[in-house]
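Obj.: predict assembly geometry.
Materials: sequence records (below).
Method: joint structure prediction, all chains together.
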Amino acid sequence: MTRSRELHLVARPTGLPGPEVYHMAERDLPRPVQGEILVQIRWLSLDPYMRGRMNDAKSYVEPFRLNAPLDGGVIAEVMESHDPGFEAGDLVLAHGPWAEYAVLKAAGAQKLPRGSRVPPQAWLSVLGMPGMTAWTGLNRIAEAKAGETILVSSAAGAVGSLAAQLAREKGLRVIGVAGGADKCAQAVAEFGCDLCLDHRGKEARELSKEIAEAAPHGVDIYFENVGGTTLQAVLPRMNTFGRIALCGAIAWYNDPASAPPASHIWMPIIQKRLRVEGFIVSDHAAHRGAFFDEVLPLVEAGKILWHETVANGLEAAPEAFAGLLQGKNTGKQLVRIS
Amino acid sequence: MTRSRELHLVARPTGLPGPEVYHMAERDLPRPVQGEILVQIRWLSLDPYMRGRMNDAKSYVEPFRLNAPLDGGVIAEVMESHDPGFEAGDLVLAHGPWAEYAVLKAAGAQKLPRGSRVPPQAWLSVLGMPGMTAWTGLNRIAEAKAGETILVSSAAGAVGSLAAQLAREKGLRVIGVAGGADKCAQAVAEFGCDLCLDHRGKEARELSKEIAEAAPHGVDIYFENVGGTTLQAVLPRMNTFGRIALCGAIAWYNDPASAPPASHIWMPIIQKRLRVEGFIVSDHAAHRGAFFDEVLPLVEAGKILWHETVANGLEAAPEAFAGLLQGKNTGKQLVRIS
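Observations (raw structure tokens):
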């Protein structure tokens, strides 16, 4: 019998989710049956989309249930396998609970290659959902081409830092936007940005002026992760027939009413004949092969850098998640469980 | 020497443009020189995009100048030709001033076919900019396919009534939205809508419920002319991977701040993976041949209906334009000058 601590969602937050919406529970796991594996969870992935799942609203993923563990991408080690595809000691990428141990369906787990120089948690970031998201937005949504100018918001974030580097590899001019001087310096030094603008404490008008100086020929592609001031600032700088790859809008997740009037974004889309396309990485799973073909060699060759912000222990997850929503992380936000 | 009355813009309006922003002037026209034609203007086209030109803001067309005549599409009769391509009595489609007479460059005028059963002002509506706009939005932007469900706003308007009929001809299920019971009845009886919903006096939630009933399989394409309540109402009913052909947002032209928070439209675009594309008909001029090939035979065969709301005399243009912005017209708003 395996005893496991689990982090439950016990209330639906308004605004920023505080510690009061979580409860640390403990229980004995059921024994795994045929087709299942018992795993010890090593790493949790924290991602902005999880904020939407805390609301009781239907979206592209089901809301988290109350009084049950939250869940998401995990890296785990197989302790006990009841499936021919896995053996004890295998590391897997899976969808699992915020817990120390779990019994998972083997069919949903993906075995990581043994002996790779890439650390296992990279399969939650550069080689996982954020990497695939960056690649998809850039290639399949925005149809980026060498010589174009791209503006990437959250340029030091998990997705943005990879979108910026992949864009640079493709031969685009890359302008980052990030919150704070440190993140901006990092976006330029490590994450492929030609330059990076700090949005902190700025009105849209001021940031827009800086974008105009940074992009004298205008912006062809906006890789949108944030909404908020950055969106307002970039719209007047978009070139006619520009594209917006609409990946997220983290600035509005906690407080949708803080957004400017919709007309402020709708009118420029007409006037500049922009193409705006929302996308969810899971729709593009059929193209994971093309993603790996392009990105895995770059990672193994050390041509793509990624950062991790690591919180230690299951009990650290709530604060780390609130920090992620406030932009306190650099790169991928992870929780190391064991 | 030809003396002509002209309607000048003398102030930039806030909100709905009233009579105080216009001034009726009168002057002697210069004599036409080589390459020019002197015309008597018969019909003015009034179009919603002209409201944007009244503001002093750069957009895809230049703002109207102050203390100069407004301008737009006109049908005119050639009085005197100094160009081998035209002779007195020719009817032309051109860009001209809100005036009784004008001297125009011959190169910018298009001679209308003589002896056609189609009345000349139809070249300002079904065979002109509104018709080409409807065709472009449907075919080149939304890529409409038989069997899909389209929602057309302003379904009794100049563009909407043609988009609805062309969609029906293509085999789509067509749901109209219009303001008032009369327009809705007309949209169904004459303009190709399977049914039409009245948005007047309704909250977005109520209209959204009616759309859900009208489109039990969801909405694949939204032909967006209005913004406002209709946009808010249709977004929750859009199918995953739906398309929005973004042609205009008349509800917000006079009062952009009346729009809901931008997050209310940005988030569903992500969640439903919508493709939103703004378009301006003039970008698609190269496809006018394809438009005529498809639409002229339908018009000549009486398969496409269009309505006109006609104001009489240059002095009637200001009130007619305000009425257009308030949705008082049915179909194309014209001013008959002579």
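Conclusions so far: Chain A is about 25% helix and 30% strand.
To do: check interface contacts against the pulldown list.
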